[in-house]
Structures are given as structure tokens and as C-alpha cells.
From TrEMBL:
PROSITE patterns: CNMP_BINDING_3 (PS50042), HTH_CRP_2 (PS51063). This is Crp/Fnr family transcriptional regulator. Residues 47-160 form the Cyclic nucleotide-binding domain. Residues 18-44 are annotated as: Disordered. Transmembrane segments: none annotated. It comes from Shinella curvata. Residues 30-44 have a biased composition (Polar residues). Residues 174-242 form the HTH crp-type domain.
Amino acid sequence: MDKKSFVADKIVWLDSRRPASRRASKTKQDQSAQAAESHDQSSSGRDLFDLLFDNCLADKVPAGRHLFLQEDRSDRVFGLIEGSVEISIYSIDGQKLVANMQTAPTIIGEVGALDGNLRTATAICRTDCQIVSLERAQLLKRIEESPLLARSMLRLLCDRFRWVSESLGDQAFLGVEARLAKRLLLLDKLLADPTGWIAISQSEIAEFLGATRESVNKLLNGWRSRTLIDIRRGHIKVANRARLRRLVTDGNDA
């Protein structure tokens, strides 16, 4: 595998120190601008989640703990009940790309658990989390026994493939400013607290975007002066969603 050829903004579901499981008529551009808010890539549906993890007991996993590591053996699928998890890819020389932020409820690591190949990314808890999990053999058994679960898993994989395709298209056709605006709208939906603040550093945003911290910092400071966003240490708040959506639209038009 040539790890140096990773493409930014791909989504993958890439274990080492995993928690022990007990038992367990808008234009296309306008539509793209709003996709960051309307597209829920973090949830595959409550029904699927309940079907898959029926009778599994939750583990409490602290922030900073890995669910799995890139290139480890895939022997388990995880369900996120509470908290958020970062999915990251690392190049052979240690460069990091944040591929996705997953929020509860969602399924994590299903691709590796389904095909049995090595993990293609690292999953780490951004916050304290509640996690359920199934061994690969249990996952396959439940799928074989439940046509509804099998169809739901196919739907999940299709949804995530569409997300990957959209992300690759953004990387190829949108400039940094439009991609940053789209990512902030997504983070606002997924991670903002009740007052609107998102706990994320500018370095993390740069890693999520596949851009340099300097370019992200310059754009964010410019947006703050135009009252599109507000910034405090380790946090950012979206102040004008409509103007950010327009930046995405303008990026598509470019």
C-alpha cells in the first residue's frame, strides 16, 4: 500500500487498544452548500443500531483512548452511544489527515469487520464516550440471521460511499475557502454545544480539511473580522450560516 498517495477528505473506517466488550428547485450548488448541514454521515439509523447491538452492554471509554489503530487486525465493530470519535489517516512519514468526526449514535469500523482486512484508519475518542461492540463472528452471524439487518448494513455502506464521493469531489473541485466553509457548517451541526461553540482547535480544523494551519488561520481571522464566525481559544462558533453557505456556492461556481 502506498500511504503517501492518500487523498484528502476521504472517509474510511479504519484496533489495537479497543474497549473490552461485555455482552453484549434549488440549484445543484445551493444543494451542495446545504449538504454539510442536512447530511447526517454520523448516523446509520436508530433501527440499524438497535438491531446490530441488541443485548450488548456499554463500556465507558475516556477521551484520548483508541478504539483501533491503522493497519491493525479488524476483529470487531463498534457502536457509539454517547460522545464523539475522530477517524484519522496517517501517512508513512507520520502526517495526519482527519477523515471524519463521528457523533452518537453511529457505527464505527464496519468495513474492516465485514471484510476482515486490516484497518485503514485510526479511531480515537475525542470526548468521554459510551461504546458497545461486537466481535466479527457475531456481526456476520447476526447479518446472516436477519435480512432486515443485512439490508440496513448495505444502506449504511451506500450512504458512506456517497459521503466519500462527495468529499473527493470537494477536494478536487472546491478551493480551500469553500471547503473550510462547508466543513464548519458540518462541525456546527455535529459538535456545537447549546450556545453554538465548537470545541476544536485551528490545527484540528486544518487536519480535517487537508490544508495548512497557516491558510486556515488566515481565512478564519478574515471571517471573524467580517462577523461570519467568532473565535476563542480552542473553540469556534458559526455566526452567519447563510454567508458561509454562499461561500460554498461561490466555490462551486468558480
